[in-house]
Amino acid sequence: MEKSVLRNKMRAIQRALPPEERKHIDDAICAHVCSSEAYRKAAIVFAYAGIDWEIDTTPLLTQILRDGKRLLLPRVQEKPRMDAVEIQSFCELTRDIYGIPSPASELPAVDPASIDLALIPCVAASRELYRLGQGGGYYDGFLAAYRGVSFLLARQCAVLPMLPLEKHDQRCTALVTEKGFFCP
Q1: Which one, of 176, 129, 148, 126, lies nearest residue 72 by Cα?
Q2: How many CA atoms lie within 13 A of 135 on its CB side?
Q3: Do 83 and 93 contact (CB within 8 A), yes or no?
Q4: What is the pLDDT of residues 83-104, one digit of tens each?
Q5: Confidence class of residue 77 from pLDDT cuts 50, 70 and 90?
Q6: Beta bridge partners of 82
Q7: Which residues, at least 6 apart from 178, have a Cβ–Cβ distance to it below 8 Å?
Q8: What angle, rounded to 10 degrees, do the helices at 58-66 and 19-34 form?
Q9: Are 153 and 178 in contact (CB under 8 A)?
Q10: Which tens digit of pLDDT belongs to each residue from 96-128?
């Protein structure tokens, strides 16, 4: 219950941001990711398509493709499993059961072991590099099996000193906000 209340509070805070401020923040986060050594070295990047109040990753996804990197996006399977699927164009996306732009069902999944950099969404993040997600467990399942570099993307207003944690919650490698990187 504590996580549910916190999710609602953090969503409301981010929805209340003026659109121009949200765009400025999101663009800064994307710029920090693209300027990182991990991004420059990565050939295969797993990312996500932000919707509604989430970080708008469209410019970042466009840059990944423009830079000639392989772009993988999540495709939800049976709960709590999701696949990493390569796309070469936004035309290959359809809306999944949650309304999120996702790779079409006929596209093949890619082995997560081949991913060089994973960009992970959250409702809130902690300085300890944990995330509060939407509650489906999809990303915790992915992160439990993934051994590469993972950047947790969050607006500074969604970074808290601590989050309520459960046994299955997974830690990321670094936190990226509009202010830059945090790696304890």
Answers
A1: 148
A2: 10
A3: no
A4: 999 999 999 999 888 888 999 9
A5: confident
A6: 76
A7: 24, 25, 26, 28, 29, 32, 155, 156
A8: 30
A9: no
A10: 888 889 999 899 999 999 999 999 999 999 999
